[in-house]
Structure formats: C-alpha cells, structure tokens
Protein: Xylanolytic transcriptional activator regulatory domain-containing protein
Organism: Periconia macrospinosa
Amino acid sequence: MFDGIYNHDFPEFDQDLRWNDVLDTNDGLHPQVLGHSGDMDPYLLQNYQYGLSNIFQFKQLSVHSVSQSSVPTQFLLSQPDLFSSSRQEMGHGKISLKTSKEKLEDLVPRDTGVRLISLFRRFILPQYPIFSEPQFPDSQTSPPHLLAAIYTIAQPFAKFDDVLSIELAYENLNNEALFQIILEALRYEAHNPNIATAQTLLLVILRPSTNPLVLESSFRWSLMGTLVATSQTLGLHHDPTSWNISRSQIALRRRLSCTIFTTDKWLAASLGRPPLIMQDTWLVTSLSVADGHGSYLSSALWSTHLQYSKLGSLMGDVLNKLFSLRAMHELASNIEETTSTSRCLLKELSDWHQDFTSHSGQHPKEDTSLPIICTLGYHYSQMTIFRATIRPFLANVHENVTTPDITNPDQSNRAETLSFTRAGVHSSTAVATTFVKSLHQDHSHMFWPHWSQVAFSCICFLDLLMATSSLDTQEALAWFQELHAARREIRLKSAMLPVLRLGLLRIDAIFWKGIDKVLHLLPHVREALEVSLETDEAHIRP
C-alpha cells in the first residue's frame, strides 16, 4: 500500500479476495472516497454488481464498496498511471523504489533505522498511536518517506540508545536530505495519496521545531491544511466502525482520524487560528476501548490515551464556542452569555479532570509522558477558557477601572461576575505555575508536542494581561508579583527543558524593552509595576 510513488505494474484484482483484505492493503491502489454531492452518487453505486471482494472493475478504475447502510460509502481505486500526465507536467517524475531506499540507507543505515523506530515506539507512540501492529513501520519494507519522517522525529531521543548515543553523539542525521526525500514523495503522492501519506504529513507536523525559539507557525499550519485535505481524500473524516473491512483497519483508521482531529484543535489553539476541521464534517472525534486494537499500547496506557483524546475534543469545543470569529463578535461585550458558556465548559473540564485523576490513581507507576501532557493540556484548556471570560470586561478598559456601584443591582451582578472571573484566572495561572515548579530532569526525556511551547508561554502573558487590567494598585501589584514568580520559575527550568524557552524569550522581550514602554499603563498600574520591580530585584539579589 505504500509504494504508490514508485514504478510498478498495475495489479489485477482477484475477485475471490475477502473484502476485509482490500481497502488499505493493495500495492499502488490508493482509495479515494466518493462524496455524496459528486456526480457518482453513492446511492446509485450501491446497486453495482460487486464481486466477493465488494469491488466492481472498469478498465482504468474500480469501485470498492465498504458500506451499504443507510449512508452507503464507496471508494474509487485508480490505476497509478492514470495520474502520470498531470504528475509529469508538474515535474513530479517517477522514482525508483530501489533508488529511494538506497538513498535513505546511505543517510540512515538499516540498523540505525531499526533503533530509531524502537525509540519512536518508546517516546512518541503513546501520544500518537497512528500505526497498527500488523503493519508497523519496518526499516526494510516501509516507504522511505514515512521512515524518514519517523527518523527525524525520533532522532532527539538517540541518547537513550546505547549504540546511537555514540554514533550520533557528534554528528546528527542529515535532516535536510531526509526532508528532501519526504517532500519529494509528498508532492508526488498528492495526486493519489494513501494512509502512509497521511501518517508522514502528521509526523512532520508533530515534529518539534529544531530551534526551540522559533514556532514555525506558517509552515506547520500549511502542512496541516494539506493533511486535512489528504485525510478527506482517504475518507478519514468518516467513521469506519460499520464498514466491511478488517478490525485492525477499522481501529487504525479511527485512531488516525481522531489524532488528526485533536491535533488540529491543539495546533489551532496554539497558533491562534480557526480550526480547519469542524465537528459536523468529521465523525471520529473521540475513541473507545475497542480502538486500541493493534495499537501496541498496554490497556493502562490506552486508557490514558482515551483521556488525552477526550481532552483534545474538549479543546475543540472551547475554540468553537468561545474563540470562533462569530463567537468572538457575539460574546465580546456580552458578559452573561460569555459567563454561561464558560461555566458549562469549565464544568466539562472539571469532570474530565476528576476522571483523569481517578485513572491516574489507579495506574500510579505508569512510566510514560502522556499523563504529564494531559496535565499540561488541562491547565492550558482552563487558562484558555478563563481568557474568554475576562474579554467582556476588557472591551472598554477605561470603563472597567471605575469602582462599581454595589447599590445598583446591574453593577452589583457585574462586580460579582468580575470577581469570580478574575479569581478563576488567578487560580488557573497559579496552578499552572505550580505545575512548572513540579517539572524535573526526567521531564527533559519526553516528547513535548508543538503546542506545549505556547501553553507554557500563556502563563506569563495571562498574568501580564491581568496585571495591566487590574482595578487598583493592590491587585495590580499582586498580579505583577505572580508574573515575576512565574517568569523566575520558567527561567530556572528552561535550562533543562527547551520547551520553555520560547515563552521565556517572548516575555523577556517585553521586560527588556520595558513594560511601560510597550504597553499603555494606567497610573495605578504603573505604580504597582515599579514597586513589583523593586521587590523582584531584591528577591533575586544575592
């Protein structure tokens, strides 16, 4: 199924094949789902005279039926040569499988590749179980572009392999050459992608920036758009649970689909972009116990992954209800509606956290990074919700600094809501800072997803927002002190945790320039800032 970019003969179908051996396992025959608004209506196609393999053949293409339910679903399987002319005019020529493998093995010897795949299983797979055990990537048989993506994302963990810790101690892999293999294949596969194409794109998106001080927002988001389009071509936006395919293919497709869905949410939140995937157009937004089939994860680890997938889906709800452009415009000055929506989301998040805490108590010795990432995701989601709750009070800053008239019922309710909101923000940033304090050396040995850089950065910036919007000097001073404490803690831990360095750089840049020279500060806020800086200098002075 993985060598669609390579030159080979078009295979004939054996009509005696079982239907569950066909969809994602035919060399060179990559499925493209047939949508219900296209010219080939699935309700017409369901009446084709399919063979035992649920395939009807034409000369240059075949139709594969996977479901004849009330919503019939079929895939189009085309000869690879059908796309030759369009590929040729775009300069995407055929690649010899042998040549491509040799090029990869010149860059990464086969034994090194085996060890890197093992490191991928250990450090990254628990967060992103996007492969199936029966067809897990193999250094001899998997497509070179997929292997190259695995090698680049696993390379930072080479120090945990006895052999690679020596081999790669002074010279890293040639990432530039590896990415040439990946990008060349992705350009070619865009005409007729397969599951390995989607897996490769996802790994490139998930790979942390080589420079921890650079977010690579534009490039990563563009790749995410390509991944979404590729996934829709492959039918990954459908739910395959009732399809006539094997159990392992169903579980893999659901895991991959949900991973793409939640990655879209975390990435959108961290980059400040609207999600590319809407819940109405993507059916697998959470996973079940059965989806762990063939994932290579233990039952305990799979249970934790279920929690992680739920949290990603919840972040999607937060973005949809509080941060879509329509929601922003409708809620920006509507305190009551913003508070009501936020309370519901906070309740869902609290329920998730209780379930997660209960699960963690049942598996206290689970040796994986996933619980740490779940905890960070919880704090990030909570801060994101509270950022929305404070928005209506920031719509008119000058109006907010006046002392509310508690004898006026409307102003009294507003004051109570404001007090609740600011207290909630304080609680969320305080526990997030405590989380940073709890990090230690072992946490430098784990895979931190791309969005975690921004999650940590949000702590200081939310403290700064609250300080500059405080109603009086005392509150502003308290917030500035919280900001200084969080900044000190992040600075202390950033030496061993590169994931903290982007947030530290961004907040340091404001201090370097001077907060009072970057932001318009009200007199009482400026006074609080000056006092806090004096106190902070005394705190760090030896």
